[in-house]
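Predict structure. Input: Stimulator of interferon genes protein, 405 residues.
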Amino acid sequence: MQQLGGEESLVPQPRGSLPKAGAIGLAIMVMTAILVLEPESFFRHVAAAILILTVGPSLHGVFLLIEECLHHATTRYRGGRLGQMVTACVGVYTLLGVGLAALLFGLTEPQPWRDQWSMVVLACGLYPLLRTLGVLGPSEVEVSEICEERKMNVAHGLAWSFHLGYLNLVLPRLEGSIAEFRASHTAGPFETRGSRKLLILLPLNANIAQKLEDEDTNIRFYDNLPNTEINRAGVRGRVYKHSVYSLLDENRQAHHCVVEYATPLLTLYKMSQESSAGFGERDRREQVLLFYRTLQDILDRSLECRNRYRLILLNDEHEDDPHFLSKAILKNLDQQEKEEFYVLPVNPQPEVDHPLIPPATIRIDDMHQIEPMSSVPSLMISHDMPHTLREPDILSQYGGTGLRR
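Output follows.
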C-alpha cells in the first residue's frame, strides 16, 4: 500500500446530469421532427407514445399493489395506508404520464385509432412480463446512482455511525488529551502541529492489521493517550482511547503521532468474506471509496471535528515496499506542515515608546501632552490629586463652562 498522490484519481465523484440532458435533447429533436413532418398528427402520436410507455408500468404497479395489500399492509405500512402503497408501487410520475396521455387524446380530433390501440394493448401485455424477467429492470449504474442519491449504501451508514458514535465524541477532546500527555512526558512528543491530529488510515482492500508494527518495522508503539471517559448509551464512564506511535524516517529520526485504522472497514472486509452477505471484492472496494468520500463530507461540515483529523487513503497496489505505511504517514505529516503558514495582521500599527494611559488616570492638565497610543498596553498611575471641572483654573484654561450637578 502507498499513499495516494491525489485521492481524486480513485475516489468516485457524484454522478452528473449528462444522461438527463441527453434524454431531454433527444426528445426535443424527435418531437420537433414529427411536428415539422406531420403537424396534423403530432398530438395523436405523442399521446400514443406516452400511453404505451406509461400504461405498462401502471399495470406492473397494480400487481405490486395487490401483493402489498394482501401480505405487507400491516408490517410495512403501519396498518395499510392506501395512499402510501399506491405511491410506492405505481409512482406519482407514472400516474401523471397516464393523465397527460389522456389529456392529449382529448385535444385531438376523433380519428380511427385501430393501429395505435393495438400497439397500446400489446405494450400493456408485454411490459409486465419483460419487467418481471428483468429485461426492463434498472441497470447496475442506475441502482448505484439511486443508492448514492438516497444514501442507501452500506458505506453511508458506516460513515455516519463512525462519525456520530466515535469521532464526534473523541475529536473535540483530543487536544486536551494530547496536552495532558505532553505534560507527563519529558521526551517532547508531538513537536509539530500536524502530528497533534488524529490520523485515520483507510486501506482500499479494507484488510486491517491489529497492530501497526506488524505492517511496518519502522513503526513502534510509544504509549496511549489518557483515557477519555464518556457516559454513553447507559454505560457509565465508557472508555475511549488512542494510541501514540513513533515512526522512523530515512534518517532514523523519530516522529510521534496519533494514528489508527478506520474501524468500520473491518465490517466491510468481514462482509466480503461471508458468502451469505452477497458482497464481493469489487463491491468492497467501491464501498471503501464511498465510505471515504462520505466521511470526508461529513467531517468537513462538522465544526466539532474540523482541523482535528486527517484521512489517509491507502492504495493496495504497492511494489512490496516493507516500509510503505510509515512512508505514507510521514509524507502526510510533511504535507500538513507545508500547509501550515502564518498570516501577518492587516495594517499592523507601529510601536511607540509611550504606554497606553487608561482614561480614568488622564489629567486635563496633561491633555495637550498625550501622544499616539502604544500597541503594547501598560498601566500608568497618577499620584496627583484629581481635579474637577468646577475649579476656576481648569475652566479658565480651557474656556469651558463646566458641568453642573
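The mean pLDDT is 76.
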